[in-house]
Amino acid sequence: MTPALFLLACGAEVPAPDVAEVLLVTVDTLRGDRLGYVGHPEAKTPHLDALAESGRWFRHATTPLPRTTPALASLHTGLWPHHHGSREVGQPMTHGRTLAEALSDGGWRTLAVSAMRVAGPEHGFDRGFDHFSIDHDVRATMLTQQALKLLDAEVDRPTFLWVHYADPHFPYTPPEDGPLSPEAKGCRDLIADLENKRARRPLVYGNTEGRAQEALADCQQLYDAEVAAVDAAIGTLLEGWRSKRGTDGWVIFSADHGENQGEDGLFYEHGPNVHDASLNVPLVVSGPGVVPGRDDGVARLEDVVPTVLTFAGQAVPEQLDGEPLQPRLAGGEGGPSVAFAESGSALHHVLHDYVVSGRARHHCINGPRFSLCTDKKGKRRLYDHEVDPGQKTDVSAKHPEQIEALTKAAALWPPESARERTARTSRFKLVQKPRLQGGYTTMLFDLTAGETRDVSAEHPEVVAELTAALEEWGAPTPVQAEERSEEELEALRALGYVE
Ligand SMILES: [Zn+2]
Fold first, then answer.
1. Residue 482 lies in a domain
2. Percent of the chain whose pLDDT exceeds 70
3. Which of 227, 245, 124 has the alpha carbon at shortest distance from 180?
4. Is the pLDDT confidence value at 17 over 50?
């Protein structure tokens, strides 16, 4: 293969290697702030730290929707969720050309191994791959072995390999022989109670009985241990990749979304809000022409496809929502300047902090004290969630006025449609949360100070600009997910997305 020259937006030229190779490594549910190279003191991630040191790492990279299927669909198509069609976990992507399809058409060998069933062939993820296999929830060490086996065949075509690890997804159960093995009794007991049905996942996610908060420090230790185990497995993968392919090529490391660990009142779950706990993902790009260093600008999962296409010397289709990161990988300016995202819906009906909770077939509209819930038979019940968060006692007869008020609100927000949304620059993050009475509450955060204080009043011009951008981005009200098959429901149950 003749070395090509990549013309970068900033004018620099980067020679391509003789053999182009791309390794895409993603880890499910990996927060952007729990890695050693970011400065997390408890992290034990030497291999990812070394990778970040050798490449460019994006501290504020984001997912466009913090749930597995839509996020990975954006990663693989370069499109926003309302353009590729997957806007909830388990909902297939229906539009867009995948990176594997583009590379395969360009003569590449395309390989994928994944440990997550909700991004599988039935969701469109095998498109363009010569080999695509799923071993659901398999440990990282095993997945690495499966990936490396695929590289044994001698080929002179360029190779694209995608490996998706699942380990840090809740429940946190790190291997006993991993790099970290904390006692963390509080969290281990909580997980055992969930497995033995002495505790209910949705009530833990919402900290209804206070147990999630009580176990937080221990659960964070177990989470760090899961991440350390994945780091070790990625170390083995990188070493095998280099020795079997004889080159590093380009290595891209990221995640589909993060995880709330108490932020916005949500524990060990991700999806129903747009807090950075679940929106911020790691993103590292390493390889020929990449100037090592930290980048604090906007970077998005949807930018990965145009970036890799540029590496591969292919044209970037105009209709993509992502932009190539090449100008910034070369240490310059340019690339994306605004990131948009929407939440998923609050999938569990007891999560009454959200205006609408539950699935279409069993959902609630939630006021400050009461929830009006409709079950799969269409039966409506009213609960006082202040005293009855588990939704056991129907109080309809006592509060007809609440039924009337919540029925009116329900007409404004169909099930699975009330979603938070956000637009951000490298410094500011505008957040809109659905209101019971319709419309959104808007807040502005200065990211240099975290997401605690609304600074809207101090920066009205930023609020106006980002609100207009968000309107223009305009993710429409989602159509409800089609009825799911039993197999699909089982997969979602295993992940804790349905009861
Ligand atoms: Zn995920």
1. no
2. 91
3. 227
4. no
At 447, which CATH number? 3.30.1120.10
pLDDT > 60? residue 14 = no
| The predicted structure's pLDDT at residue 487 | 64
Per-residue pLDDT tens over the stretch 225-250: 999 999 999 999 999 999 988 777 99
SS (H, E, C) 297-347: CCEEHHHHHHHHHHHCCCCCCCCCCCCCCHHHHCCCCCCCCCEEEECCCEC
- 25 Cα: distance to centroid of ligand 1 (angstroms): 14
pLDDT, tens digit, 9 for 90 and up, residues 121-147:
999 999 999 999 999 999 999 999 999
The Å distance, Cα 401 to ligand 1 centre, comes to 40
Q: Are residues 374 and 443 in the same domain?
A: no
Cα–ligand 1 centroid distance for 223 (angstroms): 14
Look at residue 474 in the predicted model and tell me its pLDDT: 77
Instruction: Tell me which of 303, 337, 371 is where a domain ends.
Output: 337
In a domain, 332, yes or no: yes
Per-residue pLDDT at 482? 45
Q: Please give the model's pTM, rounded to 2 decimal places.
A: 0.92
143 and 221 share one domain: yes
Same domain, 364 and 469: no
Cis check for the bond before 121: say yes or no (omega within 30 of 0).
no
Same structural domain, 275 and 180: yes
- Is position 492 within any domain? no
In 3D, which of 251, 255, 225, 264 has the Cα closest to residue 32?
255
169 Cα–ligand 1 center, Å: 7
Ligand 1 centroid–CA 257 distance in Å is 6
Q: Which domain holds residue 322?
A: 20-337
Q: Distance from the CA of 266 to the center of ligand 1, in angstroms? A: 16
In terms of domains, do 445 and 320 share one? no
102 has a pLDDT exceeding 90: yes
Asked if 155 and 75 sit in the same domain, the reply is yes
CB of 237 closer than 8 Å to CB of 148: yes
CA distances from 294 to 57, 248, 312, 447 (A): 5, 20, 24, 17
Same-domain check for residues 220 and 275: yes
Structure tokens at 20: 């182009």
Whether residue 484 lies inside any domain: the answer is no
How many domains would you assign to the chain?
3
The dihedral built from the CA positions of residue 391, 367, 215 and 69, taken in this order, carries a sign that is positive
Task: Tell me, in angstroms, the distance from the centre of ligand 1 to residue 129's CA.
Answer: 20
Ligand 1 centre distance from Cα of residue 29 (Å): 5
As a whole number of angstroms, the distance between CA 312 and CA 97 comes to 16
Distance, CA 22 to ligand 1 centroid (Å)?
Answer: 22
- What is the pLDDT averaged over residues 485-499? 65
Q: Give the distance (Å) from ligand 1 centre to CA of residue 98.
A: 19
- Give 256 Cα–ligand 1 centroid separation in angstroms: 5
